[in-house]
Design a protein that fits this description.
7-stranded mixed β-sheet; 8 helices; globular; alpha+beta
């Protein structure tokens, strides 16, 4: 079995404790799990996660938000998914976007049940809610990433530049928030486009939104990505007869 450790950035300790408890109910002892309070150290997200990654000795380091909860059966499902991805996989996530903009993944969040098959599937970028790094690749988050956004997209693009692969896997969790697109996000997205945009036609499809440089991106490329994202939004609540997903959906409504 491949070894796994966890790292979380925390500013709400009670929420983080509840998140841990949902996984502790499935696996004893709990895998190593580093709590990083970046605000106390003056760190951004990349600095905090890099520090946490360097504290553990594991094949996979799962960088996961403090507000993610794990339905019963998730741990075994996750371990099984690790065995299904190719050996040159460097990054794993629960939701991702292909280079052409198509969403792939499986999650329960405030939008409801989001399922985009087939999985596992290679993607360009994965969402930061749960992003697992294969430590032996040496990949780390760019400490120059502004604040607490876009660090996940950047590390995936780093992997692609090195010929390594990222995959969205089928191990749905419950994520109780979707984040906020605010001025801090816009600053980070401009930074990401300045770093990587030219290589991708100045359009970067991320799970949160399609980032684009309106002055430089081609009209038809922008139109294509807008159409693909609209189609994926319409199909995000497709039926999925999956017991793990059903348990996550009940948990989101306060059920067992």
């Amino acid at each position: 079995m491949q070894s796994v450790a966890f790292v979380s950035l925390v500013n709400k300790p009670e929420q983080f404790a509840a998140s841990q408890a949902s996984l502790r109910a499935q696996v004893q002892p709990l895998p190593p799990w580093i709590m990083v309070e970046p605000n106390l150290r003056g760190w951004n997200a990349a600095q905090g996660l890099n520090w946490g990654i360097d504290q553990v000795d594991a094949e996979w380091v799962v960088c996961v938000h403090q507000d993610v909860f794990y339905p019963q059966g998730w741990w075994q499902r996750f371990l099984a998914e690790l065995q299904r991805v190719p050996d040159d996989t460097a990054i794993l996530g629960l939701v991702g976007t292909e280079k052409g903009g198509r969403l792939r993944g499986h999650i329960i969040d405030p939008n409801g049940h989001c399922y985009w098959p087939a999985l596992p599937h290679e993607v360009l970028v994965v969402d930061e809610l749960l992003l697992a790094v294969r430590k032996r690749t040496g990949l780390r988050f760019d400490p120059g990433t502004p604040g607490f956004h876009c660090y996940g997209a950047d590390i995936c693009l780093q992997a692609a530049a090195r010929g390594l692969r990222s995959f969205a896997i089928d191990a749905p969790t419950l994520h109780v928030s979707t984040g906020v697109v605010d001025g801090a996000y816009e600053l980070a997205s401009r930074w990401l486009l300045a770093k990587w945009g030219e290589q991708y036609g100045h359009v970067l499809p991320t799970p949160t939104m399609v980032l684009q440089d309106d002055a430089k991106a081609g009209f038809f490329l922008k139109l294509k990505h807008r159409w693909v994202r609209r189609q994926d939004r319409l199909s995000r609540n497709r039926d999925c007869p999956d017991p793990l997903c059903e348990r996550a959906a009940r948990a989101s409504k306060g059920g067992p």
